[in-house]
Design a protein that fits this description.
The protein is α/β, with parallel strands linked by helices and 274 residues long. It has a seven-stranded mixed beta sheet.
Length: 274
């Protein structure tokens, strides 16, 4: 099983394009899965350079409906007409981030919404509960929020006036079962990284977390949240933790200081084999 980071804020090779967003290419059990699509500007170029044929995508998974994870949808759906899309119905909601009284739209771009709307039922899977994609690959469905110290990671709202908080109930993760534990892919962990990992373990009878790759959205995390996240990760004992995209440089430094070599900062162009 192999996971390649196609889109990330950082790049591992100079010829690749960096972009505030995330896209992972997963090859496992004969399936080719695109987990998120970035904003759309870097996906095509990076995929070509990295030898990934987007036209051979079997499955597209959207971790949630923000623009930096769904912006490449139109491109992918055009290239891979027979691919299947899995996402929560909430991905289509209007969404805003509000800072200093200024509302910035962060929802799915219009071309992506149009591409999604054109998908016929056999190719469109609205996900509101856990679902297996194969014998060893699963999707979390909505993730219960059980920890007291985790939140969505930002000032997110469903209206530009900031009266309706966005809990990002569409946030989901993907896991792959290996012989020595679960490899978990997350988009932004808006449900909380610890909530996500604990939920996936519950779905898999407490099986070990071997690795977690993706965005942790700890950029604005308090010292208390970081310390409790570290304590939880120490208890879970993953072999590999790959923070990408929205994890935050300070948070990654704190994680590395506490967890050592098991922390490996992600970047577009990096590949992990299990």
């Amino acid at each position: 099983m192999k996971i390649t980071i196609l889109v990330d804020n950082r790049i591992a090779r100079s010829e690749l394009r960096a972009e505030h967003g995330l896209a992972l290419w997963i090859e496992s059990e004969g399936k080719r899965i695109l987990f998120d699509t970035g904003q759309g500007g870097a996906l095509e170029k990076n995929a070509r350079i990295l030898g990934v044929d987007l036209g051979k995508t079997d499955i597209v998974v959207l971790s949630h409906g923000h623009y930096d994870h769904s912006g490449g949808m139109a491109l992918v759906m055009k290239r891979a007409e027979n691919s299947e899309l899995y996402c929560h119905p909430g991905v289509i909601l209007p969404r805003y981030s509000i800072s200093d009284g200024i509302a910035t739209p962060v929802h799915m771009p219009q071309p992506s919404l149009v591409a999604l709307d054109r998908l016929l039922p056999p190719h469109m899977h609205w996900l509101q509960q856990p679902q297996m994609l194969s014998a060893q690959i699963g999707l979390s469905g909505p993730i219960p929020r059980k920890t007291s110290y985790e939140d969505t990671g930002g000032p997110f709202y469903l209206d530009p006036q900031g009266k309706r908080p966005d809990l990002l109930s569409d946030d989901l993760a993907l896991w792959i079962e290996t012989g020595s534990g679960l490899v978990v892919c997350v988009g932004c962990s808006h449900a909380g990284l610890v909530n996500t990992l604990n939920h996936i373990r519950r779905l898999n009878d407490g099986y070990k977390i071997r690795a977690v790759i993706g965005g942790f959205h700890l950029r604005h995390a308090s010292s208390d949240r970081l310390s409790q996240t570290i304590a939880a990760l120490r208890q879970l004992e993953p072999d590999l933790v790959v923070p990408c995209h929205c994890s935050g440089e300070h948070a990654v430094a704190v994680l590395r200081n506490a967890l050592g070599e098991r922390i490996s900062s992600g970047a577009a162009g990096m590949t992990y084999q299990f």
